[in-house]
Amino acid sequence: MQLSIRLFAGLAEVIGSQTLNFHVAEPPVTAGKLKELLSASYPEAAGQIAVSMVAVDREYAPDNTVITESSEVALIPPVSGGEPSPEENSTQDGFYTVTEQPLRTEDILNKVLDKDHGASLVFVGTTREMTGSERTSALHYEAYVPMALSKFEEIGREVMERWQARCAISHRIGHVGVQEASVIIAVSSPHRAACYEASRYAIEELKRMVPIWKKDIGESSETWKGADPASSDNRPIPPR
């Protein structure tokens, strides 16, 4: 069985490709077994493979998930928030976007404004220059775009169900300079308490489970954040 596996961030750099054509001699294969086979074939990447998760058809897959030749397979390293695209990628309703273009706060806020909502909030995540004693020149973001958009929609549905709030999310990929926005989340709801809670939930869930990675470009080095194979805390967690 021949599988085409998408790779991202530091894992793609170690293996040397963003797409891996991998032969499975004894199909069928489970997600857990696939990781074992990949670790054996690419020992230099075994540490990162161990803390990565398999995504099958754009959903995080438990180890016992059976993979077929027709499955869309990706290996998701610990998220820190890809492949860059020259165009904007949006869901059909336009509420969720992944783009290389600069983000405009007003445009994203306008998506969620409602005449029956008395509260609205905008969260803006920007590139900071200093982290402790380390200086950042810029960040480079990468995303598994189709799955990222699907997860944004999942967050938006939960926000609506729990807080009766509207949510719009835009995330930038590619080069993001200091003080530039990498993510903007707009939320509106009938009352302010729900608006605060929904906004906090949206950014925390985005950081927890959406397949977006960032490379910290410093004065003397470049490092993928969230890709430390020694840290199990960086492992993406499937939604409950």
From TrEMBL:
Instruction: Name its GO BP terms in alphabetical order.
Output: Mo-molybdopterin cofactor biosynthetic process
Question: A Pfam family name for this chain?
Answer: ThiS
Top-rank lineage group of the source organism: Bacteria
Which InterPro entries would you find in this protein's record?
Answer: Beta-grasp_dom_sf, MoaE_sf, Mopterin_biosynth_MoaE, Mopterin_synth/thiamin_S_b, ThiS/MoaD-like
Segments of this protein annotated with the region Disordered:
220-240
Recorded hits in PANTHER family, A to Z, give: MOLYBDOPTERIN SYNTHASE RELATED
Protein name listed in UniProt: Molybdopterin converting factor
